[in-house]
Structures are given as structure tokens and as C-alpha cells.
Amino acid sequence: MTIRVLIADDQELVRTGLGMILDAQPDIEVVGAASDGAEAVALARSLRPDVCLFDIRMPILDGIEATRVLAGPGVEEPMAVVIITTFDLDEYVYAALRAGARGFLLKDAGAALLSEAVHAAARGDALIAPSVTVRLLEAFAGASPADAVAQPIEPLTEREEQVLAKVATGLSNNEIAGELFITLSTVKTHLASLMTKLGVRNRVEIAIWAHRTNRITPPGR
């Protein structure tokens, strides 16, 4: 199955470079490119790509707002969006994830990580650049009790708690299946149940919920 990707960046050189990297992958095809956020939204709606790869700072409509339009709360058929930027700023990471992004990469991530992020987003998974992951999770884990999110009305099962812990440490579905000795389909079933019980839409939000409720101890603590 070929993963169809839309790229949006206001710099032509960056668009071209990203396109060359992704088109070199045997199962990825770049189906469109936009130079601003408004054009990106229009192309996404007409082309219906499997994954959108958006820069943050773009004219007319920035990448975070474009993400919110295509994947944010209330969107009936949210698209898979990966944010890729030169700006390693916490507020951008948080804003991108709140807007519905399934991944956050820096432009120096390299071809392998870029490809991995696109594949993860296409699968319904999420990937955050390693350079910002620990800081991101520590920030949520350190939230005060007043900031803690509500517990689910229906308690999590023991297995769901186990899957929750693995997701929060950044493991993929395949890795979770291997560590818990369950099938990949069983992992997906538990993830779907977690999203329903927690009222979240993807594994990034599951991880954030786990850390904000202090279920997980971040690295180094």
C-alpha cells in the first residue's frame, strides 16, 4: 500500500528536499505541495492524502491552525498531520498536539526518522522527535494536582493499564505486543478502548493523559 503525502512549507527548497526524500521511499508518494497554510487545507480536502506534513510558520494560515482545521476537535474525519519545523519550542509542541497533530519533528531529524514519522501517522500511531520527547513528558508529569485531568468514569482494566504504560513510554504497537505477549490486533483493541474511556483521539493524547495523571514516572526521576 502506497502512503500518499501532502507537503506544506513556505520555502521552495525545503518542499523540494522533503519531496525528494519521501519519493525515494518505495511505499510513499508525494501527491501535492503547498506554500502556505490556506493552500495546504484546500489541497488536503481535495486530494485526501494519507498524511499531511506541515511546517509551522507559513503565511496566511500557519501550520498549527491548518492542523486544527483538518484534524482538530470536532472534525468528523480528521486527517493525519505531522508537524515538521526548525523551531524546537515547547509552546509549538503543545499547540501542535492540542491541534490534533500525530507527530512533531525537527527539520534536522534525518531521512530515516522522517520516513518513520510518516509511516507511524499513516498507521494511526504518533512519533515525536526524540530531542523533545523527554522534556514534553516531564512537563506533563510535573503538572500540579490542580491541573490534573479527570479520571475516567469507567475504570481501566489491568491490561489497559499495562498498555497505557507502554504507550506513555513511546513504544510502538508492535513493541507493546512483544513486551506484553499479546497480538497486534489485541493491542489495537485496547488502544481503541483507552481512547473511548479517556475521551482522547490518538496515542499522543493517551501518553499525555498518563503523564498528567502521574501514572508514569518520567526518565531520570
TrEMBL record:
Ranges of residues in domain Response regulatory: 4-122
> Organism classification, top ranks?
Bacteria, Bacillati, Actinomycetota, Actinomycetes, Micrococcales
Q: Which PROSITE patterns match?
A: HTH_LUXR_1, HTH_LUXR_2, RESPONSE_REGULATORY
- What is the protein name stated in its UniProt record? LuxR family two component transcriptional regulator
* Modification sites for 4-aspartylphosphate: D55
Q: Which domain of life is it from?
A: Bacteria
PANTHER family in the record, alphabetically? Answer: TRANSCRIPTIONAL REGULATORY PROTEIN NARL-RELATED (PTHR43214:SF24), TWO-COMPONENT RESPONSE REGULATOR (PTHR43214)
Q: Which residues form the HTH luxR-type domain?
A: 149-214
Keyword set, alphabetical order: DNA-binding, Phosphoprotein, Transcription, Transcription regulation
Looking up InterPro entries in the UniProt record yields:
CheY-like_superfamily, NreC/VraR/RcsB-like_REC, Sig_transdc_resp-reg_C-effctor, Sig_transdc_resp-reg_receiver, Tscrpt_reg_LuxR_C, WalR-like
Q: Name one GO biological process term.
A: phosphorelay signal transduction system
- Kindly list the GO molecular function terms attached to this UniProt entry: DNA binding
